[in-house]
Amino acid sequence: IQQLSNQCLSKDERDAYISLLERRMQHEPLQYIIGKWDFHFLTGLKIKKPMLCPRPETEELVELVLAEVGNLLRDWKEKRKMRILDVGCGTGAIGIAIANKYPAAVQVVALDVLPEAVDLSNENAEQFLSRYSAHGDSKLGVKSIYEAMLCSATHFTNNTTNTSRDLSKKKYKMNFDIVVSNPPYIPLKDMIDLSSDVVEYESYEALCGGVDGLNVIRDIVHRLPEWTFSSSLRAKHCWMEVDESHPRHLARWLSPGSVEARRCGVEYVESYTDFCGRDRFVKLRVS
Amino acid sequence: SIRIYTQFETELVGAKELFQEAGDDNEMREMARSEIKDIDAKLEELEERIKILLLPKDPNDDRNCMLEIRAGTGGSEANIFAGDLLDVYRKYMADQGWQVAMIDSSPGDDGGYKNVVLEVKGDSVYSKLKWEAGVHRVQRVPATETQGRVHTSTATVAIMPECDEVDIKIDPKDIEMSTMRSGGAGGQNVNKVETAVDLVHKPTGIRIKCTQERSQLKNKELAMKMLMAKLYDIENEKREAEERARRGDQIGTGGRSEKIRTYNWKDSRVSEHRLGQNYPLQSFLSGEIGQIIDGLIAKDQEMKLRQLSEEGAN
């Protein structure tokens, strides 16, 4: 920086800089202007509008999942890799940050409803994970570690009677060991309080979770048993970042032993606070 | 080195034998004699080297370290001087091929820094930089001075060897961490890129601010690293002070408030007080501090050797 401060800008450089400043004056998020930002240990994660710019709280979600991955790996008896599903991947931040720590041990499948998000996630995966795929599954390349697909939570199913899925499509491989998500969770009434740099630039669908903010979360809960179905008796967990109002709703809805919990096949385990002391993360168990 | 030494010893024996056998052959005797002289000289050199290798080593020598410059008395001029020292060190580090990253800084209002922390990685970093620890004093007409008077200001340099959880255990309960997002809404609702982390170690009151990284997690890790380095440094200082007391007057790696150098602009010289020697100011300012450091290392070895032989005699 010392050397840079002593340089004089050419006219073109100055014009380019001024147009960037103007964008910022319009409250465009810094990450969109620069085109990348750091998340967890991913330096220079590409970020593009309208995908959500990763927030620092989400780094804590990654740490929570990484702790579980670490624990599971200690007793890992399966011959296959650990499979992790990231629902609503956006830039790919969460899934890639996890794969980055355990590239040889995990395989991440990521979903998003936006084609741009799927492309961006796969692009970021190529950038950060291709260095690990040189050996081993060279036929599949990065896909043996991370693959993003265009699909909604509800449509990610092999059950063809409930959805209008194309019958010629081959079945999805389920048996995920961990499901993680930072789904759109802002309740409708809070959308109006968002500052312009959020609401005018970032995707509405990535932010708003319906009236109570739980729409996508409900979709996920309903699919969890199918996603984690396997012959193993090991408990499967789902980790989510949520709105502050959600942990108590979820605790009530999916209270262990309750009618609803038994019907859904999913139980609430506990919530975790973020570094600001807010109830931010929930852990669910597929029973 | 020991191998080479024994090799030379054998050669010497061989040469001496040759000398004996040469008898009246003058040419042979001359050849043998010069060979003997040659080998003797090499043996002496090796002896010195081996003695130095046998000296007790500072356990931290091979470590990387954090370098902190803090402006002392003198207001803006002290800040500017701190910035000057930073420039010098940066040049030296680039010369040495070390990796440098700025971890934290508080710029001064008129230039320079109130405080700046660097992380330095490379070969033998601590063994060389440790000699810079202490109070540096500058005597010059400040840039901000209107009447041409000479001022004396100071800056303190602290060198903290890198350490990990093996060296220092920190109880998470002793730490209070706060971030920029502590007030108002958070999560998806807010996209502010302030990832700065502020950390207070309650038992010692040490406060660390880390603004370096764009990833908050990385800032947290860096802040913890700095805290560990500071705590380790405090322990080291305690241990060194005890050793210094035991060994008497030894060239130490600085009590933290030891005045180690004075930089005089008018006379264009740097006075290194531990060696009692002066050096040209210009070379220092261009980053050529290697000479001073080598001198300090040599003097330290000399004193240690003397101590060894004294202990051996007793």
Properties at a glance:
heterodimer, A: 287 residues, alpha/beta, seven-stranded mixed sheet, two-stranded antiparallel ribbon, 9 strands, 37% helix, globular, B: 314 residues, eight-stranded mixed sheet, three-stranded antiparallel sheet, 7 helices, 11 strands, 44% helix
Structure description:
The complex is a heterodimer of chains A (287) and B (314). Chain A has 287 residues and is an alpha/beta fold. Chain A has helices spanning 2-5, 11-25, 30-34, 56-74, 93-101, 115-129, 188-191, 196-199, 204-207, 215-227, 246-253, 259-264; strands at residues 36-39, 42-46, 82-87, 106-112, 146-150, 178-181, 236-241, 266-273, 279-286. In chain A, 40% of the residues are buried. In chain B, 44% of the residues lie in helices and 23% in strands. The two termini of chain B are 28 Å apart. The mean pLDDT of chain B is 83. Chain A binds chain B through residues 2, 29-31, 37-43, 52-53, 55-57, 59-60, 63, 182, 184-186, 190, 193-195, 197-198, 202, 206-207, 241, 243-244, 274-276, 278, 280, and chain B through 90, 177, 179, 181-182, 185-191, 193, 195, 213-218.
Task: Explain briefly what this protein structure is.
The complex is a heterodimer of chains A (287) and B (314). Chain A is an alpha/beta fold.
The count of helical stretches of chain B stands at 7
Mean pLDDT of chain B: 83
What is the radius of gyration of chain A?
20 Å
Strand segment tally of chain A: 9
Record field, number of beta strands of chain B:
11
Low-confidence blocks of residues of chain A: none
Overall 3D geometry of chain A? globular
Instruction: Round the mean pLDDT of chain A to the nearest integer and report it.
Output: 89
Low-confidence stretches of chain B: none
Strand coverage percent of chain A: 15-25%
Helical stretch tally of chain A: 12
* Order of H and E elements of chain A: HHHEEHEHEHEEHHHHEHHEE
Oligomer description: heterodimer
Largest sheet of chain A: 7 strands, mixed
Please provide the ordered H/E string of secondary-structure elements of chain B.
HHEHEEHEEEEEHEEEHH
